Every structure is written in structure tokens, then in C-alpha cells.
């Protein structure tokens, strides 16, 4: 038997590691829950995971990382194995309903056997593919055969062919969303329905939505894919359905699709009639096992003025978020995008841009276009000076965070505490040095977006767990220690002043 206490330490370490690897807190917590060890086979720790998406796309690729933590907790001789449960009693029961329209019955991950087509020839006559719930379990549940194209279809007009998986730059902050979309595109209607992607503006949600559509249409050219924004849906319902009285046509349009891709669902807020209509559309498609992918700028529960029953539908699928890219990821995005448009920039310039353009990819693209235009007009590649000028134009009010690096932060902190840089950077555990070191590490993350490993390097630490410890210590003290908070704010102000003066 595995001891409860060591299990708990294992889970904590695992969660922290996943967050450090760039997963959101929610995803990290979910995965941690899924890989609670269940038994020991000799020196192999075995965990069962009944959720195929997480097992194959998130947990298995990170097996080495998980094994390292297993060894930290139980010893070097241990290995780790993730398995799909072979016996029903090994896993918590997953509810599986044949009537997904009832709140209490919809499942998070419906069993795959429910998606097996009964007879392919039946589907051909239907005009759209339909996957009966009472399928035989011995047929192949994950095959694309489940996804039969309709006979009579229109080509999608709204999908942007340039927004595909090939042009999407994968990084830690979007990896979970990317993998989920790829899995859904490979096996639509089967694993994660609906797939709900949320995150702030300009981080690639729409790009992923198009990628799913483009990928499916490549494999199944006749598939009826409907890409809409929620505003399109409102227009259809209000203008065509209610005002012109052609609601039947509106309903027919949506019920005939095989894949519904809905962008920016948050704009359905306060539109009650449209929400009711969307609720019925959703239920109908869901019952027919049609894939639904939805994007939003918020987690379902946080979208204001949307009916609870609609939110609960969204919560029943797979929820993935995209976070703003960290510093290294921004550099990778800048360099890839610059390369694509023929803009020549060196590493110093990509670092400079990454330091300033922090919030989203759209912003980075706009900036690179400005630089390209400048390159065309002057006939010269961008220089630090020309980039700084453009950065100042784009971020005129304080958002133009100065060319400040970790060293500048370290100097301000050392100066504030009246200590030497060598003490700030050194190994001494004297309280004053430790507090200063923790604050400097925290601000390197908060103010210039450095990733944990990069911060550890900048402070000459081999072990990045020191940085993780610093992060949680500072957060804790900010919450409970007024003096500490006062000092922290003063230091932050000094750094901000330095940024503005540069
Ligand atoms: N990881 C990425 N790789 C390549 N391009 C990206 C990536 N993320 C975003 N982009 C590009 O940035 C631009 C903005 O992305 P997109 O429109 O998908 O953002 P969004 O999250 O849907 O934003 P909004 O919520 O404002 O609609 C697009 O041109 C998109 O192609």
C-alpha cells in the first residue's frame, strides 16, 4: 500500500511541476488528480487513467517528468507507469447517458462505445452522419469511420486555410489547447464534446478553431463544417428567424452540420432568445454526436448573463485554456513569425520585442508588420534604435516597458536592502539576503515574464525549485505581512520608474 502522506507530497510536487511546465492551475490540478498512484508492481508505481485524451496527450508525453518526481518521493529505483483501467472496478464510474439532453445525465467523457456507427450504409441515406448510442462494443470505437460525411454538402466558405495546425506555433502556454484540438480533429465527435477553449484576446483561439475545421475538411472533404461567431448566430436567429419568420430554415441550417465551430460565445450574453435557440441547437447536435468546438474569452462559469443550463452544457465537455506566452515562448513566436514574413532580426532585437509585447500574439504580429514596412521603406534591416522607436509609438503610455533585464531588477533590489550584489546572488541564508533574493526572483517573473528555469539561471541556481519556493513565499508574505508588502511596492515602483526613464 502507498502511504497517504507520501501520496500527498507526490501530488503536490506533481502539481507544482505541471504549473512550472506552463499548464494552468486548473489543468495541473485535474491531471494531478488523474494520476494518483493506485498500486505498486515491484518497483513500478502504477496509476490508472480512464480519460483517454489526458492519458495519451498530456500525461504519457510527460512520463519522464512524472518519473523524476516519483523517484524524489520514493527513491531512485522506482519507475512510473500509466495504464488504462482493465477492470471496471479499478476506476471511478463514468456516467454514460443515452439522453444527453438531461442535465444530470450528460457525461464528461462519454464512453467511446456509444459512438460506434451501427451500419455505415444506414448513414449514407441520412444526409448527415449519425452515430447511434446503441452500438456494438466490438466495433472499432476510435476509427474515423464514426465520422461519415453527408452526401449532399456545401463547401465551407468561412474557414481560413492559412490558419491551420501547421502555422500554429506550439508553446507551453498553448500546448494543452493545441493537443486537444488536434485530438478532436483526428477523431471528431468521439472524445471531447464539446471542446471549450478559453483565454484572453489574441492568443490563438480562433486560429485553433480554424485549424480543427481545416484538418477535418482535409480528411473528410464532404464534412459539413459550420464556422460561426456567436454574433452570426444572433443575426441568424433575430434577423432571419424572428424578424423574417424563417426560424425553420435557421434551425435546418444548424441541425444539418457535422461540426459546429463557434467563436466568441461570450457575445451571446443578455440575448435570451438566442441563448434558448442555441441551447436547443447544442442539444440536438450533441445528441447526434456532432462535434462542437467553442471559444470564449472566459471560463464558462465566469461568462456573465448566460443561462446556467447553457454554462452547464459547456462544463460537461473538455475545457482547455490558453495562457499568455512566457518570455521564451514570445521570443520563439517573434523569431518564427519574423522569419515567415522575411523580416531579419537578431536575437537582441527579438529579446527587446519580447520584453515589451507581452500580452498577446496579435500585438506581436502588428509590431512585426510595422518593422517589415520600415524595412521596405528604408531598405535596411531593423536595428535596436529603429525597433525602440516603433515600440515607443506602439506603447506610448507606460506599456512601453523599458529595456530592463534581470540584472537591473537585481540591482534595484540589492540597493533597496542595502546589500551587495554578491550577497543577493550568493548562497547565504541570512534572512535579509533571502528576502531580497526572493523578491528579485518574483519580480523577474512578474515584470519581465522570465520563466522559472531562466530565473534560476540568472541567479546562478542549479535547482529551479528554489525559484518556485521564492514565488510561493513572496505570495504568502504579500497576503499577510503589511511591512513586507510596503517594501515590495516601493521596490516595484523604483523598477517601474527605471523602465519609464529608459
Ligand atoms: N500560437 C500561435 N501561432 C501562430 N499564430 C498565432 C498563435 N497565436 C495567435 N496567432 C495569431 O495571432 C492572431 C490572433 O489570434 P486569434 O485571432 O486566433 O486570437 P483569439 O484568441 O481568437 O483572439 P480574440 O479572443 O480576440 O478573438 C491571428 O493572426 C493568429 O493567427
Automatic annotation (TrEMBL):
Q: Where is this region: Domain I, interacts with DnaA modulators?
A: 1-113
Cellular component GO terms, alphabetical: cytoplasm; plasma membrane
| Residues reported to bind ATP | 202, 204-206
> What GO biological process term is on the record, naming one?
DNA replication initiation
Highest taxon in the source lineage:
Bacteria
Q: What does this protein do?
A: Plays an essential role in the initiation and regulation of chromosomal replication. ATP-DnaA binds to the origin of replication (oriC) to initiate formation of the DNA replication initiation complex once per cell cycle. Binds the DnaA box (a 9 base pair repeat at the origin) and separates the double-stranded (ds)DNA. Forms a right-handed helical filament on oriC DNA; dsDNA binds to the exterior of the filament while single-stranded (ss)DNA is stabiized in the filament's interior.
Q: What is written about domains in the entry's comments?
A: Domain I is involved in oligomerization and binding regulators, domain II is flexibile and of varying length in different bacteria, domain III forms the AAA+ region, while domain IV binds dsDNA.
- Description of how the protein assembles with itself and partners: Oligomerizes as a right-handed, spiral filament on DNA at oriC.
Family of the protein in this entry: Belongs to the DnaA family.
The record, for NCBIfam families, names: DnaA (TIGR00362)
* Protein name, UniProt field: Chromosomal replication initiator protein DnaA
Amino acid at each position: 500500500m502507498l502511504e497517504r502522506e507520501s501520496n500527498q507530497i507526490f501530488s503536490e510536487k506533481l502539481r507544482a511541476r505541471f504549473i512550472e511546465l506552463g499548464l494552468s492551475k486548473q489543468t495541473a490540478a485535474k491531471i494531478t488528480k488523474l494520476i494518483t498512484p493506485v498500486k505498486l508492481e515491484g518497483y513500478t508505481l502504477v496509476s490508472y487513467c480512464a480519460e483517454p485524451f489526458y492519458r495519451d496527450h498530456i500525461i504519457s508525453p510527460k512520463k519522464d517528468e512524472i518519473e523524476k518526481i516519483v523517484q524524489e518521493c520514493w527513491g531512485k529505483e522506482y519507475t512510473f507507469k500509466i495504464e488504462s483501467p482493465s477492470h471496471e472496478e479499478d476506476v471511478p464510474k463514468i456516467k454514460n447517458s443515452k439522453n444527453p439532453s438531461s442535465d444530470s445525465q450528460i457525461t464528461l467523457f462519454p464512453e467511446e462505445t456509444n459512438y460506434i456507427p451501427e451500419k455505415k450504409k444506414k448513414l449514407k441515406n441520412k444526409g448527415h452522419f449519425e452515430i447511434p448510442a446503441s452500438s456494438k462494443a466490438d466495433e472499432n470505437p476510435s476509427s474515423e469511420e464514426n465520422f461519415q460525411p453527408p452526401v449532399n454538402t456545401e463547401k465551407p466558405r468561412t474557414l481560413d486555410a492559412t490558419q491551420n495546425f501547421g502555422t500554429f506555433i506550439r508553446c507551453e502556454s498553448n500546448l494543452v489547447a493545441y493537443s486537444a484540438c488536434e485530438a478532436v480533429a483526428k477523431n471528431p465527435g468521439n472524445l471531447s464534446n464539446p471542446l471549450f477553449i478559453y483565454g484572453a484576446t489574441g492568443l490563438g483561439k480562433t486560429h485553433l478553431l480554424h485549424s480543427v475545421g481545416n484538418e477535418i475538411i482535409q480528411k473528410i472533404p464532404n464534412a459539413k463544417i459550420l464556422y460561426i461567431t456567436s454574433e452570426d448566430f444572433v443575426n441568424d436567429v433575430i434577423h432571419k428567424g424572428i424578424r423574417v419568420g424563417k426560424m425553420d430554415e435557421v434551425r435546418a441550417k444548424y441541425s444539418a452540420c457535422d461540426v459546429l465551430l463557434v467563436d466568441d460565445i461570450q457575445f451571446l450574453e443578455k440575448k435570451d432568445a438566442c441563448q434558448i435557440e442555441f441551447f436547443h441547437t447544442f442539444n440536438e447536435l450533441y445528441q447526434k454526436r456532432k462535434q462542437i468546438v467553442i471559444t470564449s474569452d472566459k471560463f464558462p462559469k465566469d461568462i456573465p448573463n448566460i443561462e446556467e443550463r447553457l454554462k452547464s452544457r459547456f462544463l460537461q465537455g473538455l475545457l482547455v485554456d490558453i495562457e499568455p506566452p512566457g518570455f521564451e515562448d514570445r521570443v520563439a513566436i517573434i523569431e518564427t513569425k519574423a522569419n515567415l514574413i522575411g523580416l531579419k532580426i537578431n536575437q537582441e532585437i527579438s529579446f527587446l520585442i519580447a520584453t515589451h509585447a507581452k500580452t498577446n500574439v496579435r500585438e506581436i504580429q502588428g509590431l512585426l508588420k510595422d518593422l517589415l514596412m520600415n524595412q521596405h521603406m528604408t531598405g535596411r534591416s531593423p536595428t535596436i534604435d529603429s525597433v525602440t522607436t516603433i515600440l515607443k509609438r506602439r506603447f506610448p503610455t507606460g506599456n512601453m516597458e523599458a529595456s530592463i533585464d534581470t540584472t537591473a531588477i537585481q540591482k534595484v533590489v540589492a540597493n533597496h536592502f542595502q546589500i551587495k550584489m554578491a550577497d543577493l546572488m550568493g548562497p547565504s541564508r541570512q534572512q535579509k539576503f533571502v528576502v531580497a533574493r526572493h523578491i528579485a526572483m518574483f519580480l523577474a517573473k512578474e515584470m519581465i515574464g522570465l520563466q522559472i528555469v531562466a530565473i534560476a539561471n540568472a541567479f546562478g541556481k542549479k535547482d529551479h525549485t528554489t525559484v518556485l519556493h521564492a514565488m510561493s513565499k513572496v505570495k504568502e508574505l504579500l497576503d499577510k505581512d503589511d511591512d513586507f508588502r510596503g517594501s515590495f511596492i516601493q521596490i516595484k515602483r523604483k523598477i517601474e520608474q527605471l523602465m519609464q526613464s529608459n
